[in-house]
Amino acid sequence: MSKQTHAFQAEVAQLLHLVTHSLYSNQEIFLRELISNASDACDKLRFEALNNNALYEDAPELQVRLSFDKNAKTLTITDNGIGMTAQEAIDHLGTIAKSGTKDFMSKLSGDQKADAQLIGQFGVGFYSGFIVADKITVETRRAGAKPEDGVRWISGGTGDFEVETITRAERGTSVTLHLREDALEYANTWKLKEIVGKYSDHISLPILMEKEEWKDGELIDPKDESGKPSTRPALCGPAPRKTSPTSSTPTSTNRSAATLKPR
Ligand SMILES: Nc1ncnc2c1ncn2[C@@H]1O[C@H](COP(=O)(O)OP(=O)(O)O)[C@@H](O)[C@H]1O
Ligand SMILES: [Mg+2]
Predict the structure, then answer these.
(1) Domain of 187: which CATH number?
(2) What is the pLDDT of residue 130?
(3) How many other C-beta atoms can be found within 10 angstroms of the C-beta atom of residue 159?
(4) Of 81, 163, 242, 255, which is least packed with CB atoms within 10 Å of its CB?
(5) What is the CB neighbour count within 10 angstroms for residue 121?
(6) What's the distance, Cα to Cα, between the start and end of the chain in Å?
């Protein structure tokens, strides 16, 4: 399928506006929502795989990975759960899936502070990514589908979104947030670790984090050496010593090796 543009359902456009305008003081809940979706996707895979073990393909370990790229100003939440077909991406990321959302929206008072509290408690789902991102790219492939049947969904969170077919080897979904200038703090290991600890402690999946390394005062991009992001399934222990990048010590220092949430 070549690139197609679809309009958001009217209620989604309304919700998007609400979410991005009411939640400045409660920005960080976006991560709770996206990790919760990743976790749901893994639960769905587990359930479907009861009758079709082949859906695990060559990756039976279900997990969530967080990675970021400071230069590109992106944060990516990846799961190897059920994934989505193109039609599912169009339906689920273009309309409001959650029953009760419309009712809920009609109950909002217009008082920014009270509404923000309510919205935060209710759970605004996928669209909360737009609190911190001015563009979201989702790449996904449904478990059991061919690599050529992957899907890329892109939106700036206003009126519409684009969908096209891609080749994607891994099953599951990557949600890449192109961070707004006032949200660059989320491209940071410690910030992510703090938020995961605060909101996603109940998640039973391992949540892995790309490691960030300093060497001779330079930040090493973990993608440079291996060609793909590295994650390390180490247990979440005491925070590794933080070494200043301007430190005169010439040795390399592993700045973070985090599994935010062990299984
Ligand atoms: N990581 C993901 N993997 C698979 N499907 C997803 C993922 N994230 C979102 N979705 C789909 O998009 C829908 C909407 O997500 P969301 O707005 O969070 O609402 P909810 O989780 O309450 O259904 C989900 O129900 C699911 O079908
Ligand atoms: Mg959700």
Answers:
(1) 3.30.565.10
(2) 94
(3) 13
(4) 242
(5) 10
(6) 38
Strand residue runs (E) in 30-171: 64-69, 74-79, 133-141, 150-155, 160-166
| pLDDT of amino acid 261 | 62
Q: How many domains does the chain have?
A: 1
Query: Taking Cα atoms as reference points, which of 199, 157, 209 lies closest to residue 180?
Result: 157
Q: Nearest C-alpha to atom 24 of ligand 1 is from which residue?
A: 92
Report whether pLDDT(240) > 50.
no
Nearest CA to ligand 1 atom 10: 37
> Could you tell me the pTM of the whole model?
0.83
CB of 81 sitting under 6 A from ligand 1: yes
190 falls within a domain: yes
Mean pLDDT, residues 134-150 taken together: 98
**Rounded Cα gap, residues 14 and 8, in angstroms:** 10
Q: Find out whether the beta carbon of 38 lies less than 6 Å from any atom of ligand 1.
A: yes
Q: How far is the CA of 80 from the centre of ligand 1 (A)?
A: 14
What average pLDDT does this structure show over 66-82?
97
Centre of ligand 2 to C-alpha 31, Å, is 11
Residues 6+ apart with CB under 8 A from 176: 74, 75, 76, 136, 137, 138, 139
Question: Is residue 147 assigned to a domain?
Answer: yes
